[in-house]
Amino acid sequence: MVSEMDNQSDVIDDIQFQILQLKSSREWNPRAKFLIILLNVQDFASEEIQKNLSRKILTVLWSWKVINVVILMECEQHNFIFEKNDSLVNIYTWFPYNDSNNCEDVTNVILMDNWTVDQKFRLGTTLFPNKVSDNLHGCPLKISSFNFEPMIIGMEDKEDGTVDFKGGLEIEMVKMFANSANMSIVFRVPTPENQHWGVKFDNGTWTGLPGEVLSHHTDMTIVNFWYKCHLINEFECLRPHMIDAARWFVPCAKPYPRWMSITRVFNKSLWIGFILSYIIISFFMSFMVKLVNTFLPREHHSKEYSGVIHCLLNFWAIILEESATNNPPRNSSLRTIFLTWVMFCWAMNTVYQTFLTSFLVDPGLQKQLSSEDDILDSKIRYVIFKVITFLLPHLASDRYRRGEDRPDFMACFDQMAFKGDLALVFSTQRLGYIIAASYMDGDGKPLICSFEEIITNQMISIHIIKGFPMVDKFNKLVGKIVDAGL
């Protein structure tokens, strides 16, 4: 990078403009080596003024985590009789995290070397040495997060306005990071509370956890983040440490109410057929009695079955296995009809009582939603959170037009578990833990279920500001943690 401006403020603006142009590219790499050449600097050629200018330039670059920088400026020339300076170019740089008082502020700008009239470096030092050591002298590692079991557990407010967490899988991981680099951890919680996951505005800015990183308030975010560094250019992701799955979660099928066992033995068509048979045979019996009575003397008439009402009552008694009448039909034709109905009712009652007992002991489960098509074809309401559709845009297509977005995860879980009228897409890692902890019935069975169908597998990674100087060290540590099975 070259600047030909001739005053300090214009030089700073020019460098900042060039950095913003580079930063807009997908290939932007803050950990690259930057060589800055300042021309036309005669007005500030003394070493003290040059250090002050270098400090301002390095401060601007450090806001984007650029530290592999050397600045070249023309030296002040001495042509006095008793003194001569043979240096042509001064080379300045700085080293962050040198001690606990020099963590992130650019204060220790040093004159690294000089280029002499002999066309060689005076000291011969490496222009781009390792700027960050393994010991960061207790400098803070700023992390934004919030309660999200099992990754982040037990948030506690501290007197200084920060927070702390009791434990969790990713909390233990970042503690290993801090111990390995001798850093202190400072936790932050994003605000506002209902936008922890972040909302993207039309101007490209974010709230929540992404906003914490992009505004440089924090170094990293931990909260079971699915990998999204391919979507946000200013993000960088550490090596993934887990794999999560996005699934449909639905209410578990509830047992049938025991009172429904009375009707569940036979399906609807069989009940209708049985009732129609009862009515038809009652009318048929009444008709046959009238027909037979026309050929018999009065004393042999079957008065107990002489009308439709009598036939209905007597045949209903047979259904209930009660005595129909003390005077059964005397005519063989009528007795045949009567016995046919008795045998039919006896067979139906035997089957009914057998299965009724089974249903009373074990009512069974109502229909379980078992696929995405079942959910979309049913009338059940379903939720697809906006934070998920950002990563999985196909879930916002017309196929899922009934999908809702809601701000409160836990309210959705409660409605799904206890009311049974909601389904949703969510993280298997997260909701599996919540179900085991909070949504089990008295028999130890879950109230929220999923099915084998997986929408997508997602890598879980810790998101950091692009150019974070400890990324290589932390990546190696993540690899060791995963390989060790911790």
TrEMBL record:
<feature type="domain" description="Ionotropic glutamate receptor L-glutamate and glycine-binding">
    <location>
        <begin position="150"/>
        <end position="215"/>
    </location>
</feature>
<keyword id="KW-0406">Ion transport</keyword>
<dbReference type="GO" id="GO:0050906">
    <property type="term" value="P:detection of stimulus involved in sensory perception"/>
</dbReference>
<dbReference type="Pfam" id="PF24061">
    <property type="entry name" value="LBD_receptor"/>
</dbReference>
<keyword id="KW-1133">Transmembrane helix</keyword>
<dbReference type="InterPro" id="IPR052192">
    <property type="entry name" value="Insect_Ionotropic_Sensory_Rcpt"/>
</dbReference>
<dbReference type="Pfam" id="PF00060">
    <property type="entry name" value="Lig_chan"/>
</dbReference>
<protein>
    <recommendedName>
        <fullName>Ionotropic glutamate receptor L-glutamate and glycine-binding domain-containing protein</fullName>
    </recommendedName>
</protein>
<dbReference type="InterPro" id="IPR019594">
    <property type="entry name" value="Glu/Gly-bd"/>
</dbReference>
<dbReference type="InterPro" id="IPR056198">
    <property type="entry name" value="LBD_receptor"/>
</dbReference>
<dbReference type="InterPro" id="IPR001320">
    <property type="entry name" value="Iontro_rcpt_C"/>
</dbReference>
<keyword id="KW-0812">Transmembrane</keyword>
<keyword id="KW-0472">Membrane</keyword>
<keyword id="KW-0675">Receptor</keyword>
<dbReference type="GO" id="GO:0015276">
    <property type="term" value="F:ligand-gated monoatomic ion channel activity"/>
</dbReference>
<dbReference type="GO" id="GO:0005886">
    <property type="term" value="C:plasma membrane"/>
</dbReference>
<keyword id="KW-1003">Cell membrane</keyword>
<comment type="similarity">
    <text>Belongs to the glutamate-gated ion channel (TC 1.A.10.1) family.</text>
</comment>
<keyword id="KW-0813">Transport</keyword>
<feature type="transmembrane region" description="Helical">
    <location>
        <begin position="336"/>
        <end position="360"/>
    </location>
</feature>
<keyword id="KW-0407">Ion channel</keyword>
<keyword id="KW-0325">Glycoprotein</keyword>
<feature type="transmembrane region" description="Helical">
    <location>
        <begin position="270"/>
        <end position="293"/>
    </location>
</feature>
<keyword id="KW-1071">Ligand-gated ion channel</keyword>
